[in-house]
Structure to design on (319 residues):
């Protein structure tokens, strides 16, 4: 076999490999006209080599940003270095349907793309090659992990019994709200409420009955508050509510509405009706401290006054 025949055989073998690798290969001139298009590209685009040969990439794939991609090509050619595009920046270069739509749960193929220069025998770069990798499975796995982490983060902030914020998460938001108010000097009201004679309920009816009462109170709280209000379970049978942009009198209106709604709702447990009332204390924000602690103390003191004065009432702090 002559040296020429050997070279032709090697070239044929190389082209055969390029045609069958499970990676998209596209050769372009510097005007982004297509010179090579392997089987991966045929299978996923639905276009054969005869359909794309010499055609502009932008005409065949109008979703590709001409400005962005042309800058990529220019940089590769002038710097004689590779360039990359990953799915986190752009989900795909070419909008190919996922060929595993049932198992992948994605309609489109996520892609990583490498663009590298092709240097001629003269030492100049007049062509580039794209390598397009199907990374759909990897992208979906990472997205699923991120979603799971976000869900775990949310769950770590939620009280399981009431579906309100737990104490740590709620007090963290209280601290943030107080710092915002220090800067803006806006008004806001803090409400603390406690279920009346809750220990007596647990002693007489059992802890499961107590849990039903806590669920009812938290449900009424979610129904009565505004979307902008921040409610949480502070501990045991005690709850807290931040009422942004609300003065003390506005807070009284909210508390009375909530108190009456709870009082009118009778919890039945084991066939027995259990009347429920709550005591509430509220304090309009005052800027006498660098932290939210005194604001919380003022509303707690008002709550204590409600209990001392007969319960099932609300009290506005005068501090």
């Amino acid at each position: 076999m002559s040296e020429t025949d050997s070279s032709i055989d090697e070239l044929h073998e190389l082209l055969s490999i390029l045609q069958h690798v499970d990676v998209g290969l596209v050769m372009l001139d510097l005007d982004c006209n297509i010179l090579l298009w392997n089987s991966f590209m045929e299978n996923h685009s639905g276009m054969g080599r005869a359909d794309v040969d010499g055609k502009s990439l932008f005409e065949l794939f109008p979703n590709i940003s001409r400005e962005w991609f042309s800058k990529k090509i220019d940089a590769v050619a002038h710097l004689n270095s590779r360039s990359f595009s990953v799915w986190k920046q752009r989900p795909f270069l070419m909008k190919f349907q996922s060929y595993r739509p049932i198992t992948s749960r994605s309609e489109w193929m996520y892609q990583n793309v490498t663009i590298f220069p092709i240097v001629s025998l003269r030492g100049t770069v007049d062509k580039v090659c794209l390598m397009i990798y199907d990374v759909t499975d990897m992208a979906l796995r990472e997205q699923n992990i991120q979603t799971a982490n976000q869900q775990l983060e949310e769950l770590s902030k939620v009280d399981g019994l009431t579906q309100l914020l737990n104490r740590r998460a709620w007090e963290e938001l209280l601290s943030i709200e107080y710092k915002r108010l220090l800067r803006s000097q806006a008004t806001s009201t803090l409400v603390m409420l406690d279920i009346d004679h809750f220990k007596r309920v647990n002693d007489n009816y059992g802890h499961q009955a107590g849990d039903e009462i806590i669920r009812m109170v938290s449900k009424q709280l979610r129904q009565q508050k505004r979307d902008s209000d921040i409610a949480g379970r502070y501990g045991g049978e005690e709850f807290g509510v931040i009422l942004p942009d609300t003065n003390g009198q506005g807070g009284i209106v909210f508390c009375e509405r909530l108190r009456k709604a709870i009082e009118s709702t009778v919890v039945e447990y084991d066939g027995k009706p259990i009347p429920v009332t709550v005591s509430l204390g509220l304090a309009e924000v005052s800027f006498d401290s660098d932290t939210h602690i005194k604001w919380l103390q003022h509303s707690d003191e008002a709550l204590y006054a409600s209990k001392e004065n007969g319960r099932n009432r609300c009290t506005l702090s005068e501090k």
The longest helix spans residues 136-155. The longest strand covers residues 125-134.
